[in-house]
Write a structure and sequence with these properties.
Layout: H1 5-38, H2 46-58, H3 63-70, H4 74-86, E1 90-94, E2 102-106, H5 108-131, H6 134-148
Antiparallel strand pairs: 1-2
């Protein structure tokens, strides 16, 4: 049985794409780890940094809003939030509208970590910007938005 030529080409494209995604993932991970070292935050996981970043982006969400955004269950998010509270990265404030709900806020320590995470993202963006011309950057932006939306 012969495999059609376009199927082979598609498989090759998928393999190349997997390699590119893997390399990009390594670049992001290495940059974030270097920033963690630079800011002396080695005891913080990438997942915890992602929680802090999401809390910042959502502007003080409650647990339900955070769980929806992270696409995780509320019990899973609550466990992680409790650890972040215990480590003094976030704190809760009871909602004025619904006394059963509390909103999550970054502590000063949490804000510093979020700034470090943004610093890592900026370094990656600057690296990409140095290697591509304006037209390539525009194309990359369009393609990444298409993939992510």
């Amino acid at each position: 049985m012969r495999v059609p030529c376009d199927k082979i080409k598609k498989n090759d494209r998928v393999k190349k794409l997997i390699n590119i995604i893997s390399s990009l993932s390594n670049l992001i991970g290495n940059t974030e780890e270097a920033a963690k070292e630079q800011f002396n935050l080695l005891n913080l996981t990438v997942t915890q940094m992602h929680y802090l970043e999401t809390i910042h982006q959502l502007k003080n969400p409650n647990i339900t809003e955070l769980a929806i955004q992270l696409k995780l269950t509320k019990p899973t998010v609550k466990v992680a939030v409790d650890k972040l509270i215990e480590r003094d990265y976030i704190y809760k404030i009871q909602s004025d509208e619904d006394r059963r709900s509390a909103h999550l806020h970054l502590t000063e320590k949490g804000k510093l970590i979020n700034q470090m995470h943004e610093y890592a993202h900026n370094r990656i963006a600057e690296s990409i910007t140095r290697k591509l011309n304006n037209e390539e950057l525009q194309t990359l932006e369009v393609l990444l938005n298409k993939v992510l939306n």
